[in-house]
TrEMBL record:
Signal peptide: none annotated. It comes from the Bacteria. This is Purine catabolism regulatory protein. Residues 311-442 form the GGDEF domain. Belongs to the CdaR family. The lineage of its organism: Bacteria, Bacillati, Bacillota, Clostridia, Eubacteriales. InterPro entries: CdaR-like_regulators, CdaR_GGDEF, GGDEF_dom, PucR_C-HTH_dom, PucR_C-HTH_sf, PucR_dom.
Length: 545
């Protein structure tokens, strides 16, 4: 839709004009037309103009026609029209030669033609072209806007864009992963130029053209026109046109500009929708694990987002320890949450579909058990947990992951119990120095923890252990810890002394003191069992809620 020098020579009296020089630049784009009778007006041109002159006041004020033509070409003048018969009978040979040399079309206009007879029809044509361009711009904009309103999304935008410009279209995210493509064979490419060799097409919007190679098309090379999609001064996507069929025209850049704006709006819409969905899902999950929701309400909310909560589930809770080194700023925290969520989801997807809720220091997963018994479900969760820990050990070596698994919740109302069990499993795992703990595998510890839900566990701490606790508190000693290490080492005083880094006689003295204060007979099996259970209860009092 641009008008060229060749086009204007088909307008009005210019049909009779002669193109004497610079014929190879007859496709120069024309943006305006003006009369020039003062030499220094060239300094004020912006490019794309056709200049009209009779050489009046020009030939006597310049040193060289050649230098004058060269200067016009440098200022990207589209053409020079010289009227003969008034000042000069014929166009000087120096001008014609310079026109060919510097690529500036030189047009001879007859003496009977007035400048106004040339300017008006050319200006009218330029005006009509601009009006047509604006109309086309609006039509394209309306068309793309309708696509977004109709919910066609990125796929619809790229499909219509391909129809308009006749080349494959791909929309990539900021990591150059294809979000929509009209031809999958051109989504994968390799660059054959560095960034300094790219052809810059637009200073304002940073469009550029680059040469690439396509492995899926027998490594043929073609050019891409790349339009970065910016939001809040950040590039969030790329609109890419592969010029595999034809090179884009100027009018098609108008289409791309419209498309980039609509893509940006579509991405904003997607983000807004995903953010609402994320909050809705998080609120539903939080309600489920808290138990503060009616079953009917939970099922109704779940159906809105396509969740089926009627099957059995268990809660998998992961807590990230020692992560402060990786979360020094808001951006790092956001990146961490995004990476953790993506990694965990990808691993779990190998085993089952799931629902996940994540924060900066923990996450929990609503894991469908699909009618399986507890053992195979826990086995799958353990495998997934090991994979996740291995993946993060490479990038976050200082971070440790504790994983707790709750019992299978047959009904929605039991999900909160499964969450509490997963939480308790993690706390018990820390006592036992275990990174992965399933509540169903805790044995006696599980029984004690469940007992603590409906009872005050302090009632079950034997008098012997309470006596040691009271003595330690009043005398600032640590006999309870000594006794715990002694039992852990199967009542072996030598091993206990080594673990506590104290002399063997010192451990014998402490053990005698423990017997005296607690009244425990170390050789009595009943006393030992009661003491061991008492120590476990003391530990659980710090964890069970």
């Amino acid at each position: 839709m641009e008008i060229t020098v060749r086009d204007i020579m088909e307008i009005g009296p210019l049909r009779e004009a002669k193109l004497l020089a610079g014929k190879h630049r007859a496709d120069n784009i024309v943006k305006g037309i003006t009369i020039i009778e003062v030499p220094d007006i060239v300094d004020w041109l912006s490019g794309g103009e056709i200049l009209l002159t009779s050489l009046y006041n020009v030939r006597n004020e310049i040193m060289s026609f050649r230098d004058y033509i060269r200067k016009m070409a440098q200022r990207e003048v589209s053409a020079l029209i010289i009227k003969t018969g008034r000042v000069v009978e014929e166009i000087p040979l120096e001008i014609i030669q310079a026109g060919d040399e510097f690529g500036l079309p030189i047009i001879e206009l007859g003496r009977e033609v007035k400048f106004v007879d040339v300017m008006y029809p050319v200006m009218a044509e330029l005006f009509n072209k601009e009006v047509s361009k604006l109309q086309y711009y609006k039509q394209v904009q309306d068309h793309f806007t309708e696509l977004v309103i109709a919910g066609e999304g990125l796929e619809g935008i790229s499909r219509v864009l391909e129809e308009l410009i006749g080349n494959p279209v791909i929309i990539y995210d900021k990591e150059y992963k294809a979000m929509a493509a009209t031809d999958p064979s051109v989504t994968t490419f390799g660059e054959v130029q560095d960034s300094t060799q790219r052809e810059n097409l637009n200073e304002k919007f940073y469009y550029y053209r680059q040469e690439v190679v396509f492995p899926d098309l027998n490594n043929i090379t073609a050019t891409q026109v790349v339009i970065p999609i910016q939001q809040l001064n950040q590039i969030n996507a790329y609109l890419v046109v592969v010029e595999i069929n034809k090179r884009l025209t100027d009018i098609e850049y108008i289409i791309l500009e419209n498309a980039s704006t609509v893509i940006s709006l579509e991405l904003v819409k997607r983000f807004a929708i995903s953010e609402v969905e994320r909050r809705f899902k998080n609120d539903l999950l939080d309600s489920l694990i808290s138990g503060n929701i009616l079953i009917e309400t939970a099922l109704e909310r779940a159906s809105i987002i396509g969740w089926d909560l009627k099957g059995p589930y268990c809660i998998v809770l992961m807590e990230f320890l020692d992560i402060n080194d990786y979360l020094t700023g808001k951006k790092q925290r956001t990146n961490f949450i995004t990476e953790v969520g993506s990694t965990v989801a990808n691993v779990i997807n190998e085993y089952t579909k799931h629902f996940m809720r994540i924060s900066s220091d923990s996450l929990y997963v609503l894991w469908p058990t699909q009618g399986k018994s507890e053992a195979p479900v826990v086995a799958d969760i353990r495998k997934a947990s090991l994979k996740i820990s291995a993946l993060f050990a490479k990038k976050y070596p200082k971070m440790h992951i504790s994983t707790g698994v709750g019992s299978i919740a047959v009904n929605i109302k039991d999900i909160s119990d499964s969450y509490r069990e997963a939480k308790n499993a993690i706390n018990i795992g820390r006592i036992m120095n275990e990174a992965f703990i399933s509540f169903s595998e805790l044995g006696i510890m599980r029984m004690l923890c469940q007992l603590g839900v409906t009872n005050d566990l302090t009632e079950f701490v034997p008098k012997s252990i309470n006596n040691l606790i009271l003595y330690d508190r009043e005398n600032k000693t640590n006999l309870l810890n000594t006794f715990e290490v002694f039992l852990k080492n199967n009542s072996n005083a030598t091993h206990t002394a080594k673990e506590l880094f104290i002399h063997y006689k010192t451990i014998l003295y402490r053990l005698e003191k423990i017997r005296e204060i607690s009244g425990i007979d170390f050789s009595n099996h009943k006393d030992r069992l009661e003491a061991e259970l008492g120590l476990k209860i003391v530990s659980l009092l710090k964890t069970c809620k």
